[in-house]
Amino acid sequence: MQLSRIPSLLVVCYLILTCVTAAPSPQEPAFEIPVQLVGFPVIIAAVRITNFVKKLAYSLNPETYTSRVRRSLPRPHEEEILDVGQVEKKLIAELGNNVCIYERICFRYAARTLQRRSKERVLDWDNVFSQYKSSPDPMKENYLLSVFMGDIIGSPNLCHQLAKRGRGCNDELSD
């Protein structure tokens, strides 16, 4: 019986030695993964996360929800687009030769518009109509024109240039 144990013990020792010598060294990994199995999913996940962040930033931007017309309006730094001569001709054609602009009122609303360009613009209608009622009858139309030119166009330079060209009203109104 002891003779049969010796060969079996030798076989077990041989198997243990082959397993120990076949074990990976510290420099080489025990299991090799092809680079494509890890690389491609990581790249795809990075692209999806990047697209998600872009869409999230776009949807959180308040400029996204303004109308295309308002987004395409010239910005204050693009004031050279407005030709004062053309604006004056259009005002005369639409409202007659007696049209004038209250420069201080136009300037005040234009400055307020420039400060709130990216925010929602809200007019103080009570103030607008109280000033409208206090203006002389033939000048009421010019007062509202001054308010709206200042608020909608938002160019203090345009208000000043129109007044300089002789389209400024006598400033009888108080601010």
Summarize the structure.
65% of the residues lie in helices and 0% in strands.
Description:
It is a single chain. The chain has 175 residues and is mostly helical. The chain has a domain at 75-167. 65% of the residues lie in helices and 0% in strands. It contains eight helices and no strands. The chain has helices at residues 2-22, 35-60, 68-72, 84-95, 103-115, 125-134, 140-153, 156-167. Helix 5 packs antiparallel against helix 8 and helix 6 packs antiparallel against helix 7 (140-153). Residues 1-22 form the signal peptide. Keywords: Signal.
Largest sheet: none
For the terminal residues, how far apart are their CA atoms?
120 Å
Q: Can you give the mean pLDDT?
A: 75
- The total of helices stands at 8
Report the portion of residues in β strands.
under 5%
Class by alpha and beta content: mainly alpha
- Strand elements, count: 0
What Rg do the Cα atoms give?
A: 39 Å
Helix-strand pattern, N to C?
A: HHHHHHHH
Label the overall shape: rod-shaped
Q: Helix coverage percent of residues?
A: 55-70%
- Sequence stretches where pLDDT stays below 50 over 5 or more residues: none
Oligomer: single chain
